[in-house]
Amino acid sequence: MNFQFGIPSFVTFGEGCTDGIGEMVQGLGGKRVFCVYDKGVKSAGIVDGIVDKMKSAGIAVIEYDKVLPNPPDTLVEEAAELARKADIDVMVAIGGGSAMDCAKAINILLTNPSPINQYNGINLVKFPTKPLIAVPTTSGTGSEVTAFSIITDTTNIKKMVIGGQFVGATFALADPLLTVGLPSKITASTGMDALTHAIEAYVSKGAMIPTDVYSLKAIDLIFNSLAEATLNGSNIQARTDMLLGSMLAGFAFNSAVLGLVHSIAHPLSAHCGLPHGVANAVGLPHVMAFNAEVVPERTKDIALAMNLDVAGLSPEDASKVAVEKIKALSKEISIPSLKELGIDKDIFPTIAKDAIAEISTMFNPRSATEEDVMAILELAYENVEETVKV
Prior knowledge:
alpha/beta; Rossmann fold; Dehydroquinate synthase-like, alpha domain; 2 domains; 3-stranded mixed sheet; globular
């Protein structure tokens, strides 16, 4: 038995765990922090309390609030220049995947030369980065514990996957209380992103015993708490389970990698501007059905982790139940179809071509062609009941 498993971050999890962020920065020898977030997190009242705690500890905080969904390379270059001029020694990211991905990429450029585009790939970052503290405010990407940064290449209109050494955060402060005010629409889409991470990691060609353990527990936590967290956001237990599930899914896919759902989602976001979680959600059940032909036993395991009554069913029949339950969950939390999102079918050939070229496609358990992706997109367009034949 041979495998490589790891995560880049030391995790502190629990209600109020961000209270000690000032002392944490001091412990890292930090005196000047570059704090990255978006305007939505600021308006939600999350940023000020964290920034105030750092300032109370005598830390100078330079704030950058221009983070955008699917962060572009141009924004990273702009922010990195500001951080270099400010002579910062610690990075802090507050927010969802976009803020954390953006902060990781900025951090790379503080000790490695621009442009960020040259680091698209694995282990291309050559020099160690500065300490980075990631504070997630959504239960979605798991970026606080992964060695990946997803940045949009605005020249080639594609998502770059920058991964490996010197990319991930140093510390993750995961506080469920910071997710309580998350709007239901964002709770739904980011939650489906996390569920996709767990499912794809479990069926990935890169799966291993540690990632299997984390994937299955993440599926349990996320599937059984996402609807409640979306429809009743003040339920702190649901919020806690979602944040923990998202983090465990991050543990899993950081080493197992992902699959065809993400391969399709990346060009959908790059070309159509879809939020990453929505782009994953629309394709998830159809890719699950597509993959079930070659991994029916693992798809049954997923159904069992979802606590579905499938123990007496064949792997093939259990797989069909799992797919339908994922569709039902998406419907319950109002995930739209590609048609409802206003996506023009004329873009499908471009999406299919780009999806096949994605790194994640190599780890998908079933080989896929552009025609297979086109068929999946057609199903996601109408959000029809029929799935790809299993």
